[in-house]
Amino acid sequence: MIFGNIIGKGTTKEFKFLVTGDAKKFDFVQVLNKEKYVLANILEIERDENQTIAFCGIIGFIDNGLLSILRSPLEPGSEVLYASDDLVMEILGLTDNKNGAFIGHLYGRSNIKVFLDINKLLSKHISIIAKSGFGKSYTVSVLIEELLEKKVPIVIIDPHGEYSTLKYPNDNLKDLEKLSKFGLEKRGFIENIKEYSPNIEVNTDAIPLKLSSSNVYGKELINLLPTKLSNNQLSILYSCLKDLNSNSSIDDLLIRLELEENSAKWTLINIIEYLRNQNILSDSFTPFNELVKQGTCSIINLRGVKPELQEVVVFKLLNDLFNERKKQNIAPFFLVLEEAHNFLPERSFGEAKSLPIIRQIFSEGRKFGLGACLISQRPSRVDKSCISQCTTQIVLKVTNPNDVKAVSNYVEGLTLEMEKELSNLPAGTAVITGVVDLPLVVEIRPRKSKHGGVAVDLFNEEKVENKKPLDEIEKYNNKDLIPIIVPRTTINDFRIMSGKKNVKVKLIPCAIFSCLGQDEFNIIVNLANGDAVMDFETGKGERFLFDIKDISTQQRNILNIALKFKESFTAAELFSRSNVQFSEIYDIINILTAKGYLKKEGNFYSVNRPYSNILRLPSFKCHEKIEYTSIEFNELMEDRVKIDFVKDFLSNYFKIKNCKECFLVSYY
Predict the structure, then answer these.
(1) Residue 35 lies in a domain
(2) In terms of domains, do 425 and 383 share one?
(3) pTM, 2 dp
(4) How many domains does the chain have?
(5) Are 456 and 629 in contact (CB under 8 A)?
(6) In Å, what is the CA distance from 546 to each residue of 194, 255, 531, 611?
(7) Residue 455 included in any domain
(8) Which CATH number goes with the domain that contains 178?
(9) Are 467 and 634 in contact (CB under 8 A)?
(10) pLDDT of residue 548
């Protein structure tokens, strides 16, 4: 296809031509020069009343298998042609790379795929920049999907809980149409995703994240404290640490601090107690080889965690993982750092506890196979020493002048024309550098998994027949959204599996309780029948609630002691833990046995079900996700068991940190 002919003055780097064909900005064109085709890129197009002129930047030509540059300008009058895909791929060095990460198509060239070198990602670093709402997280998720399919271990620092939807297949109709055009299929990665959080009250579907309390000593302890200490406080702290050893606990330090005579110790004690009470440090910490595992993406969900604590968690976690990687105790892995400007700010924009270890990872991580991905909407506020270490950059739409300037300062090969285009990039389009020697404009491929910015719509596929309006749920009257436990099976899946055309929907009232025993765990209680839910399709589970009004206070105390035995026990063993007379134990045991609380086998006793189920509740722990959504339903079950009764009952055995009402969706 002929686009036009070269006119006017040209150089070895640029030329212009009179447009007679359907030329577009960013199109690649070719011009014959001494029996070799030269590749160029249309940088800008101008039109007046009489003519249209395109301005092109020259890329080069292939000579003896190598990319060469022009040494003399192109001849005026030469024909400018639409460049063939083969020529573009040959000169740019773009080849199908089965071992690479497929990120998208060259803009305007659906036949030319763009791949990122996975070995390069793990040995070097990448930055992804865009203004808020223009596809940072979406692009990162595309990259994560590719890495998961290549079994690369991934750790994501996720301040806002955006990445948990990687578990589920994409259900966006527009994305599904695009996926077919890209030759891809929707897919969820639920088997590859593990989500951890220091706050499972907010992030109910997450596993509790516990950080190692070992070697929390000296400088590391100071970095773990959420506030900056004064010189006086530092002096007191160092004085106390000298009297302790590396195996001492935070409690040992607090005891030593109380012996100090300086009044400044009280503020310091309060700060250290605050850290201890966050319950993020533990001897039974989350294993490092569980966080970094081949084919697994570990999401560190920090939603609901205070900013100062987020910095502490990120510092401690990355410091431990980096040290383990240096010792080769864990595999090479890829670190994704969302909202990077909060964790590694430029000096003029504040300080962060996490900055030193992240700076070390960016400067030394490549030696140990630790690649990092830095994501930010404010590159001007990100530490320059870290962002300059990124050899691959993906830049989507950026409009803030300071951020545009920051991008142009660290992105290699970015031309003045391309810099001007950063604020005009279409949605889903990025400028990528580091793949080849030149910046590429790439159309990012659609996600295979569900996008985190899309609200859950349980019934978007078909209306439910004989629906009841939301305001029939009295406690949510006049509200648009109610808390729903996200079902594992969609209504369409149930329709296919059951063979039913008209599927009805039942809402089961439930409550999720965040409990603290030896460990922290969440359980969901069915308020229609009082069961601890184990089957999230039907709401069925194990009964554990019981009314203990038919026994005396003393008998109740003995029953509570009996509940602490994991196995059967004798009367003598029960007596040794109680404060009653031995003669009374037999009378109480006989009463509890007669009323069905205990059962006797020979000389041994055990607690009957459902009473013994209270001890098994930690094994009923769940990681279900709650989302607020509008819903249509056919039946609403009555909450026969009141949430306050359940809370009071559980309080006898566990510390209740939080409880939330919600609804479980069941199909029939």
Answers:
(1) yes
(2) yes
(3) 0.77
(4) 5
(5) yes
(6) 35, 42, 11, 7
(7) no
(8) 3.40.50.300
(9) yes
(10) 67
- The predicted pLDDT at position 617 comes to 86
Pair of tokens at residue 595: 């009323």
Give me the helices (H) in 355-485, please. 355-364, 384-387, 401-410, 416-421
Run means of pLDDT, 10 residues per run, the chain, 668 residues: 93 94 91 92 91 94 89 94 94 82 90 88 89 88 94 94 90 87 90 92 88 75 83 87 77 86 88 86 89 94 91 93 93 94 87 91 91 92 90 91 87 79 87 85 92 52 45 46 82 84 90 87 91 89 78 83 82 83 83 86 84 82 83 87 89 86 91
Residue 7 sits in a domain whose CATH number is 2.40.10
Do residues 174 and 479 make contact, with C-beta atoms less than 8 angstroms apart?
A: no
Give the end of a domain, one of 92, 121, 149: 92
Q: Which domain holds residue 645?
A: 470-546+616-667
User: Do 425 and 410 fall within a single domain?
Assistant: yes
430 and 339, same domain (yes or no): yes
List strand residue ranges (DSSP E) for 456-590, in order: 482-485, 505-516, 520-526, 531-533, 541-543
- How buried is 187 (Cβ within 10 angstroms: 0-12 exposed, 13-18 middle, 19+ buried)? middle
Same domain, 199 and 225: no
CB atoms within 10 A of CB 442: 23
- Do residues 607 and 562 make contact, with C-beta atoms less than 8 angstroms apart? yes
Distance CA 377, CA 507 (A): 40
Token look-up 């605050």 returns: 274
- Dihedral class, residue 452 (left if φ above 0, else alpha if ψ from -120 to 50, else beta): alpha
Q: Are residues 377 and 406 in the same domain?
A: yes
393 closest CA partner among 377, 406, 374: 374
My answer on whether 122 and 205 are in the same domain is: yes
Which two tokens mark 328?
A: 């080769």
In a domain, 317, yes or no: no
Helix (H, G, I), strand (E, B) or coil at 550: coil
